[in-house]
Amino acid sequence: MTTATQSGGGVSPGPSPAGLADVIDTILDKGLVIDAYVRVSLVGIELLTIDARIVIASVDTYLRFAEAVNRLDISQEKEGLPGLVGGMQEGGAKHKTKGALEGAAEKLRDFAGDGSERQTASRRGSREES
Amino acid sequence: MAASSQTQQQTGIYVYGILPGDIELASDIPGVGDPPGEVRVVHSADLAALVSEVDLSRPLGSPEDLAAHKEILDASAADAPVLPMRFGAILASEDAVAHELLEEHRDELAGALEELDGLAEYVVKGRYVEQAILNEVLTENNDAARLRDQMRGADPDATRDARIQLGEIINNAITQKREQDTRALGNAMTDHCEASLVRDPTHELDAVHVAFLVRVDQEKDIEDVVNDLSAKWEGRVQLRLLGPMAAYDFVGATEPEG
To answer: Is A8 on the interface with B (CB under 8 A)?
Structure first.
């Protein structure tokens, strides 16, 4: 499911189009590092660093999972009631969509830099903070 | 274009990646920057670099910049080996690209391109379907089921500890499933790839996230593998195959997993 919007137009060829999140996962901390090859005419530029966050399980994660189990229970209990089925399914779908959008928004927010997440210079695109 | 001295330099030369010298620019994908720079080829003997001019006064890293970097490299990846640079590589001049980068490291770069000849990177990404995976865990794990029953109808505030405990059990169970499913994917792909690299999960419901180095003429085979797995995991995991792309995960001085 590609949820991130394809900005800048142009769909890449291949089996499946890459969304923004896929791009971030791929090019940010991978590829040849030019400092390893060239130092003399290296030029610095301000890079908006993007925090492609790696999943660190926390209490928040746990509570989210518990909440999801709770939702699961509700939708399964109501399954037997004909009058509610349609509504519940809709609710379920809404939840899913919301989750996906939140994910995309998170990535996008990181992209925007938010001011606080900007980092000056260091053309390493460093992700030292963990 | 001159980098004659240390005078205030307004523009730099952004380097996307390195390819064999006989490539030609087929497409006119816009480069990084705003307005986007025009992508050009810098040649040196049997090597070439894809570059574009970039304004140094403006920070780089917008979604458009990142997408441009990747699209420009991936557009070539199916036809020619590509050594991708990490995002943000800028040199003072095209001359520096030709000499300091290409010429001085010719053997190493040409050797790496030779190794990549006929290969491209593909990434398989899978996300668990939340309801399905939760049901799976609750069915398989008695503790989880017990905690779920305990929470039922209870005041959420009173069961906070139980909920945290339940969530932790689920998280651990999903981590285990991720490892199992990643192994299953690796086993299914093993005959069709030259190398593979497991990427870190980027979402708590990530099922698999693996980069594969594959012969471009075997693309159909890996499509079949992914389709088969996708059918097997129907309703449980949403699988996607991305590529062909430049071999981002398989270049670089640092050897993954020493």
So the answer is: yes
Token reading at B43: 């040649």
Note the pLDDT tens digit of each residue in A39-74.
888 888 888 876 666 667 889 999 999 999 988 877
Query: Among residues B21, B38, B20, which one has the least CA distance to residue B29?
Result: B38
Q: How far apart are CA A107 and CA B139, in angstroms?
A: 33
Q: In this complex, do B88 and A125 lie within 8 Å of one another by their Cβ atoms?
A: yes
Whole-number Å distance between alpha carbons of A12 and A19: 10
- Going B68 to B74 to B80 to B84, the CA torsion angle's sign is positive
pTM: 0.78
Number of residues that make up chain B: 258
Task: Scan residues 34-93 of A and list those with Cβ closer than 8 Å to B.
Answer: 34, 36-38, 40-50, 52-55, 57, 59, 61-70, 72-73, 75, 92
Q: Rounded distance, CA B189 to CA B178, Å?
A: 16
Lookup: tokens for B203:
């979402």
Of B59, B90, B241, the CB nearest to A15: B241
Q: Are B123 and B226 contacting, i.e. CB atoms less than 8 angstroms apart? A: no
Per residue in B76-131, pLDDT (tens digit) is: 898 899 999 999 999 999 999 999 999 999 999 999 999 999 999 999 999 999 99
B245, β-bridge pairs? B121
Q: Tell me the two tokens of residue A114.
A: 């938010």
Query: In Å, how far are A36, B108, B228 from B247, measured between CA atoms?
Result: 18, 16, 25
**B165/A59 Cα distance (integer angstroms):** 9
Give phi and psi for B119, each to the nearest 5: -115, 155
* Strand, helix or coil for residue B22: coil
The tokens describing B170, both together, are 């689920």
